[in-house]
Sequence to fold (696 residues):
Amino acid sequence: MPSSRRVTLKEVARQAGVSYQTVSKLLNGQVRLLPETEARIREAVDRLGYRPLYPARSLRSRTSRTLGYSWTPATPDSPNQILDLLLQSMLSAAEASDYHLLCFAHHFDVRRELETYLTLYETRRVDGFILSSVEYDDPRILFLLEREIPFVAFGRSNPELQFPCIDVDGCEGLRMVVNHLLESGHRRIAVLAWPETSRVGNNRLEGYLQAMHSAGLEPDSLWIQRGEGQVAFGEEATRRLLNLPPERRPTAIAALNDLMAFGALRAAQQSGLHVGSDIAIAGFDDTPAARYVHPPLTSVRQPIWQIGQQLIAMLLEVLNHAYTSPPECVLLAPELIVRASTSPEASE
Amino acid sequence: MPSSRRVTLKEVARQAGVSYQTVSKLLNGQVRLLPETEARIREAVDRLGYRPLYPARSLRSRTSRTLGYSWTPATPDSPNQILDLLLQSMLSAAEASDYHLLCFAHHFDVRRELETYLTLYETRRVDGFILSSVEYDDPRILFLLEREIPFVAFGRSNPELQFPCIDVDGCEGLRMVVNHLLESGHRRIAVLAWPETSRVGNNRLEGYLQAMHSAGLEPDSLWIQRGEGQVAFGEEATRRLLNLPPERRPTAIAALNDLMAFGALRAAQQSGLHVGSDIAIAGFDDTPAARYVHPPLTSVRQPIWQIGQQLIAMLLEVLNHAYTSPPECVLLAPELIVRASTSPEASE
Fold:
């Protein structure tokens, strides 16, 4: 009965009338069963066309109880705001199951990057990987899927690529920001966005468009400013927005990250505007600096601790053949943190 | 000839008339020499009373080519500003020598923390450790020294404890800040400091005192404000300083970290002062937020990339018995980054 839908271990177990742990252990050579039980399971596997998601671990003589993680280095203009919390969360989750994290350097040369993943896996230094900063056509995803090397990812890639994944609902995050601005009475709301090649950016931008359309508003084309996501771009783009004629000039700016929002703050203040009352500005990521700038910046916080915990739990399920769901992306909701940059009376 | 001073491998080599690599390889069982050469080296070892710094690695059947690193988790109020750069630097240095970094969780329970170090070493998951956030009487240092477990540290501990170590000259950093303020014409310079139990804090504060004394100035006792190093303390302490009578009121504030400086900025601006011209404020650490606050904050930058590279090079020397210097702390100079918070005409 092979079909395009993946048959799960649970279905095999139900068909054979045993627990899924029993099926998993049998297929991994971790248990010997009564001949008739084994025959029943083998038959169910054949009849349903079950295919393990990853190569049976018993082919490898031993596991390292080590998980591999590498990430794109930050730059002074674009610091990594979540690394510490994400690592600490993953470390604690891994260690609770007697696993450790092996960190390895990111290589901008893709071939070298992929070789590193392969070598670490083939030399059994790690049992599987956690990926982050996932983009469209991510070469790591394609490479690991093709070789059936176990991994989980923080972030989605192309919709047609299926793999175990956790992501934050950036679309929902922007909807929250725009709805908050609408409730404060704003109608001319601009957005500082990334280039169209950015998967994360498109996802967040979609939330802006949805919220505007739901409110019956059609954004002026000039209100969507796209650039490299740095402070300097936020500053330039905001200057352009503030130079629009009064009837087209936005009264609120939602930036897809905090860095662009910091630039927007600077440009608005240089124009003599009082941020919070004359103009509202919001960011995304709730970076540490968001609470130190003046006025403190409204932003969207991602549940990083939860993400780290779930990534490890998911990867351990994959490694233990207990990951029975079709590999879909688990979406987590972000949280809106309202501060004085959009709400002068905010306490923070 | 045993004495309190450690005899180095170099001295043994000189005495025996061979290279120190030869001595190292012989003592590690990595080479067979002519019997007379070996005898000459053994004799020099005995005569000088040479004792290897760490137990001969050949006692362990294999090495893991893995280095262990754990760090204190940050909090939202006190983010870890250097983790990404330090990790990337250590990863790249380690991988250049075919080593990897195993990260493990910090445990606030000291006994559990030390057990983790011991287990990772005894089960041969790691060959040695890198420590950071080192304090006085650091239990990790005492524990690892006692067991002769290889490690290097970013930061000094008690002066009498000798171990391979790299640190940033925080005293020099504060001297640079205070001298810059003196050159700008300030004489009443206050300092926002940590409690007296902080080794890093005392080191930085010493630089303030040295620079003031060199300029023939005796700081008013109220100019030294001590607290927990957070934004809130910086704000309160600055409010107290600004309430002093004019002749005792400081015209410049040097904070031992950027967070306290952010609080000082806020308090000064709430008093209607124009930071940079009415009052000068400087921080330390050059955190990402330093360039986003208004006005951008003068701060002291640590050479983090260089520190990561040198920590790994030092640890590999220890592991390869090529670490021949007496275990002293290598002090690296920080860099003063002047911005508008102390110098209104600064370009950044």
